[in-house]
Amino acid sequence: MSKQEIEEILAFYHNSSTQDLARRADTVCRMNYGNAVYLRGLIEFSNHCHSDCLYCGIRKSNDKVVRYRMSKEEILDAVRMGKDCGLKSFVLQSGEDSFYTCDLLCDIIQAIKEITQGQAAVTLSCGIRSKQQYAQWKAVGADRYLMRFETSDPDLHERLRHGISLKRRLQALEDLKECGYELGSGYMVGLPGETEEMRVNNALLCHKLQLDMVGIGPFIPNQDTPLAGQGGGSIEMTIRAVSLVRLLLPKANIPATTAAGSIDPQGREKILQAGANVLMPNITPVLQKKNYLLYPDKICLDEDGLKCLNCLKYRVLSINKSISLERGDSLGIGMKNGLCE
Ligand code: SAM
């Protein structure tokens, strides 16, 4: 995409109503993905975290959290259930938890590949680790990695991530890219101190990184964090952000996030009509998922994975799209070069 094309998209973004922006993004999305909405089975396997991000409900300092770790067998049971429902893509997400050593995660990745006869994509989302660990997980079969940069503003990033610099996060994303992962990142909208200029820069950073996947969700203040009582992101802000990113990255996989569904009962449908093409049913066992509380009023907490899946099918049909059980690999140009030493 040329500099001039990017400028035209930004001009359109600034001068258009949210409805017009969403309509254009939806057209671009349908040109690339038709009516398909890909599913990723999300397993939130640990809520232990050694980070202390100011916005996050599972931050280290929140002593109200009931902490849990799923065993390898519990994780594999969730995968089996998802596989029986036809899922071919699994996302393993956790806090930054070194209990899951490089070897343990290698074991789990290999077992998932065996259970799914190599047919399912495995996505990891466990935060910042060494490049060597990323390379080892890739070598045993991990396909994709998700790690949001959260905000592209270096000062805001360092403040909200309790001292961890944006530079370090971007270095980790670079490491992942060099290891050959399909690369996912993204950000929250409506963080305290965020400006419209930052929101545009967030979208431009996604383009600069040539991401294969982009997760964008509203910031939702959590009462048990230092950001309690602050304002959060709105559904309109989220629609505008997703639409802009779809225009800048026509081929990226973009989920309609749970956070969007948590601030608006029709939030995910609205985002799927504004450029998104992915949903992530939460297949974490009910016992654990109710303790993965990043923010209040998170949806689907008392539903098991199967119920979650059925609900999503109806939601997708209601907007004239259809669920695809394909792996939904990236059509993008992201990471393709370079191998890890
Ligand atoms: N540890 C991994 C990492 O740092 O990438 C993954 C887990 S982290 C809890 C997953 C995502 O939750 C973060 O990237 C952040 O964008 C989102 N999140 C955390 N707190 C949130 C909040 N209060 N509102 C909305 N999203 C939130």
What low-confidence regions span 5 or more consecutive residues with pLDDT below 50?
337-341
What string, H for helix and E for strand, traces the elements in order? Answer: HHEEHEHEHEHHEHEHHHEHHE
Overall morphology: globular
Q: What's the CATH H-level homologous superfamily? A: Aldolase class I
Number of helices: 13
Q: For the largest beta sheet, what order do the strands appear in spatially?
A: 2-3-4-5-6-7
Largest sheet: 6 strands, parallel
Describe the structure in brief:
With 341 residues, this protein is α/β, with parallel strands linked by helices.
Structure report:
The protein is an alpha/beta fold. The protein has one domain: TIM Barrel, CATH 3.20.20.70. The chain has 13 helices and 9 strands. α2 crosses α9 and α8 runs parallel beside α9. The chain is globular and about 50 Å long. The two termini are 30 Å apart. The chain binds S-adenosylmethionine. S-adenosylmethionine binds next to loops.
